[in-house]
Amino acid sequence: MTLGTRAAGNPPASGAGDVETREDGFAAALDRRPGRHWLLHSDGRRSPLPVGRWHGPPEPASRAVVARCAGPTLDVGCGPGRLTLALTRAGHTAVGVDVSAQAVRLTRRRGAVAVHRDVFAPLPGEGRWAHVLLMDGNIGIGGDPVALLGRCRELVRPGGTVIVELEPPGLGLWRGRSSLASLSADGEMRRGGAFNWARLDAVAVHEVAAVAGMVVPEVFRAGRRWFGELAVPVRPWAPSGRAGR
Ligand SMILES: C[S@@+](CC[C@H](N)C(=O)[O-])C[C@H]1O[C@@H](n2cnc3c(N)ncnc32)[C@H](O)[C@@H]1O
């Protein structure tokens, strides 16, 4: 497993630092062009993208995630914003963040709040969020999960958590280049530009989190989907008598 090397807050080392590339990356899926969509990975695998789900109402698994949120929540890579909206409806302050202008438009059209921003750029409420969400494979953003989790650490408040959707056990950590492939309703296959991406499973998350200075108190399942709730460990208690020595 190759873990990340980039310091949190700095742009990714190559390619993915280019916001335009990343914005284009999911465009066909965010535009809801009819057809089927996959992410093609440079290891030869492909992941079908549940684009209908992104554009639809919150599904049972997302309700399980929302139920864990107990305060202001940042939905990173919000896409069309179904989670941001579900959080808002549950009475939380919720803000979606996405590099895609189309994603932000769709989220706002649903009645939720979203900012058009790269997660690695300055964001509102840094250090004050109770939860940060990385759903639907978004741990892949930037292609370096250690750097992304490091960035999320900067965003959450003490005691806050980062809720991450994971791959089922078996894959480990994969980092590489991916691109969106779309099969249109009239049978034409189109492929977008490649960008840095990563996939992380429910076992490897422990090591990746540790390198990012976090722990994984819980891995949980909702239906067939896997999630981890990550936290910054509380500092070990030091006897007060040692203070000032
Ligand atoms: C796999 S899709 C997730 C869809 C979304 N969670 C939903 O429910 O519709 C990844 C999303 O992350 C966004 N994204 C990619 N890189 C990003 C970045 N650096 N900062 C913020 N959003 C980013 C993409 O534009 C896309 O909307």
Automatic annotation (TrEMBL):
Gene3D superfamilies, sorted: Vaccinia Virus protein VP39
Region (Disordered): 1-21
Entry keywords, A to Z: Methyltransferase, Transferase
EC number: 2.1.1.-
One GO BP: methylation
Pfam (any one): Methyltransf_25
MF annotations from Gene Ontology: methyltransferase activity
Domain Methyltransferase span(s) in chain numbering: 74-160
Protein name: Class I SAM-dependent methyltransferase
Organism: Micromonospora sicca
Lineage of producing organism: Bacteria, Bacillati, Actinomycetota, Actinomycetes, Micromonosporales
